[in-house]
Design a protein that fits this description.
By secondary structure, the protein is α+β, with helices and mostly antiparallel strands. The chain has 3 domains: about 120 residues, Immunoglobulins (Immunoglobulin-like, Sandwich); about 80 residues, Immunoglobulins (Immunoglobulin-like); about 55 residues. It is about 40% helix and about 35% strand. A 6-stranded mixed sheet has the order 1-9-8-3-4-5, with helices on one face. The chain is elongated, with a radius of gyration of 52 Å.
């Protein structure tokens, strides 16, 4: 009996020791994983610097090397954004962390390649994205400067500078600034670039054209990071040039007509004034004649009266 009790006691002791060792091993693995994450977060590896420009309103993916999901032991992304700092981490033992809480997440492609997913890229997502990954046989670290790309609004028209035609192409409200070139070379062209306080750029290019230009149109080409191909705008020269010529011709004609109207009006006014003066003078002269005619009549009557009076005296 004593021997059996000793055997049972030995078995219980061995089982308890094995259970204690298993718990200690689990705690060791957990602490080792935490140490790896903390060491990765606090260390400063040699980064490979990259630049990436992402389109406004589009979903975007950023990769940290070309290793597959199965090859990685852990990967961590540390983000320094415009309004906050956050990090996203993955460890092979299942210890994951995501403090961004804005839709960003670690995903993998159909080929099992890991990438950082950014939904609906906006101005608040602009910043520095640092990633560190450890895989079987090595490690990689990248620092990616992420900026935003906004396509500009395009417009074109025909203008005049003195007696010269000027073709104008404009790319407004883009990030970064657009590039504008013309189909006609050798003519004088100017480019003006303006930036606003919120980071948008407006580019305006003006091309002087000869008045005896034979072609009916001229085109400008605009290139921008938002587009895979150049955008082209065409400006019609013939119709627009004729319209502007009629406008320029109508101005001197209108001025000449107005001056002629003033001249003939002034001349007519002088004639009217002279006519009125002659009418007034002619209306006054008959009154003088009447006075002259009346005066002899009065003297005649007076003489008649005197004769009549004298004849009366004789009879009396």
């Amino acid at each position: 009996m004593k021997e059996m009790k000793l055997v049972y006691a030995a078995i219980i002791f061995l089982v308890s020791e094995a259970w204690s060792l298993d718990q200690a091993f689990s705690r060791t693995n957990q602490s080792t994983s935490e140490m790896k994450l903390n060491a990765t977060s606090s260390s400063s590896p040699n980064y490979v610097f990259k630049y990436s420009s992402l389109k406004l309103g589009r979903d975007a993916n950023l990769t940290c090397g070309d290793k597959t999901w199965t090859e990685m032991m852990f990967v961590i992304w540390k983000l320094r954004l415009k309004n906050k700092d956050c990090d996203i981490a993955f460890h092979i033992d299942g210890q994951n962390r995501n403090t961004c809480n804005d839709g960003k997440s670690l995903q993998n492609t159909s080929e099992a390649q890991s990438f950082l997913f950014i939904p609906n890229f906006s101005f608040s997502d602009v910043g520095i994205y640092k990633c560190e990954s450890v895989f079987s046989g090595g490690a990689e670290a990248y620092s990616i400067n992420v900026s935003i790309t906004v396509p500009p609004k395009l417009s074109s028209w025909l203008d005049w500078k003195g007696n010269k035609m000027v073709a104008v192409c404009k790319a407004e409200g883009g990030i970064p600034a657009a590039n504008i070139s013309w189909s006609h070379t050798g003519n004088t062209s100017t480019v003006e670039t303006r930036d606003s306080s919120d980071g948008f750029f407006t580019v305006e290019s003006r091309l002087e054209l000869p008045t005896d230009m034979q072609t009916e149109n001229v085109s400008c080409a605009i290139s921008h990071l938002s587009w895979e191909h150049e955008e082209s705008l065409m400006i019609k020269i013939e119709k627009a040039g004729r319209a502007f010529s009629w406008v320029h011709l109508a101005i001197p004609i209108s001025i000449a007509f107005f001056l002629g109207f003033l001249f003939f009006g002034q001349k007519k006014l002088v004639k009217l004034r002279r006519g009125q003066e002659s009418v007034v003078s002619s209306s006054k002269s008959p009154q003088t004649d009447d006075v002259e005619e009346v005066e002899p009549y009065a003297s005649y009557v007076q003489r008649v009266n005197s004769i009549y009076n004298s004849s009366l005296d004789m009879f009396t």
